[in-house]
């Protein structure tokens, strides 16, 4: 099998790129948060809106205040499912400029339960400035309806359907997160879920950031 260096999961530099993206918030269940996804003049996507903690009138809901965006559902045809294979890569990388709020990266794979989402906190280190965030695929945690699943089965990594971003940090107010691209990639020491060479954690992270920096 040929080793792939990277795969662009989401291009977001134009309105055409964002066509078909899905956005949602607690407004879908009677809440009052708002969400928008648009393209800046610089050619970056901007996920923004307002998080409201006001509960819906439906008393079954005890908590409110979330918003999300994600790529469109895969377009299957007679030749393939339209999904992409994350098992060929070790990391997910995002080029982002975030405010000081907490965001999650969400991955949806082909599962029997439609609400199953693999999540990881977006580890922003320099709010207000552009940075590249790198997350190993094996660090994502399975959740369902926002709750961590106890059993944690392995991700169906050969059948990845969507990637997205969300916010549900229980803070009232506006939010804004810009992102330039989302990629899956290997360092020179990795071959998807397999290691090509022994490494230390510090060394592999330094290598990965150095390689990604050439594209920024």
From TrEMBL:
UniProt keyword terms in alphabetical order: Chaperone, Mitochondrion
Domain NADH:ubiquinone oxidoreductase intermediate-associated protein: residue ranges: 13-178
Stored SUPFAM superfamilies: Galactose-binding domain-like
GO term, biological process aspect, one: NADH dehydrogenase complex assembly
This protein's record includes keyword Chaperone: yes
GO cellular component terms, A-Z: mitochondrion
One function term, GO molecular function aspect: unfolded protein binding
Subcellular location: Mitochondrion
A Pfam family of this chain: CIA30
Family recorded in the similarity comment: Belongs to the CIA30 family.
Designated name of the protein: NADH:ubiquinone oxidoreductase intermediate-associated protein 30 domain-containing protein
């Amino acid at each position: 099998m040929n080793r792939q260096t990277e795969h662009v999961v989401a291009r977001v530099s134009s309105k055409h790129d964002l066509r078909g993206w899905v956005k949602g918030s607690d407004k879908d269940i009677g809440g009052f948060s708002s969400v928008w996804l648009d393209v800046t003049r610089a050619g970056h996507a901007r996920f923004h809106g307002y998080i409201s903690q006001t509960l819906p009138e439906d008393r079954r809901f005890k908590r409110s205040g979330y918003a999300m965006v994600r790529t469109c559902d895969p377009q299957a045809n007679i030749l393939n499912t339209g999904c992409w294979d994350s098992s060929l890569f070790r990391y997910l990388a995002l080029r982002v400029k975030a405010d000081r709020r907490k965001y999650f990266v969400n991955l949806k794979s082909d599962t029997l339960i439609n609400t199953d989402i693999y999540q990881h906190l977006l580890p922003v280190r320099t709010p207000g400035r552009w940075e590249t965030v790198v997350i190993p695929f094996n660090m994502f945690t399975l959740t369902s309806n926002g709750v961590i699943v106890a059993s944690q089965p392995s991700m169906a990594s050969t059948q990845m359907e969507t990637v997205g971003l969300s916010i549900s940090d229980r803070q009232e107010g506006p939010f804004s997160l810009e992102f330039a691209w989302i990629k899956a990639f290997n360092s020179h020491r990795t071959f998807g879920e397999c290691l090509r060479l022994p490494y230390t954690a510090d060394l592999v992270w330094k290598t990965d950031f150095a390689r990604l920096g050439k594209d920024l």
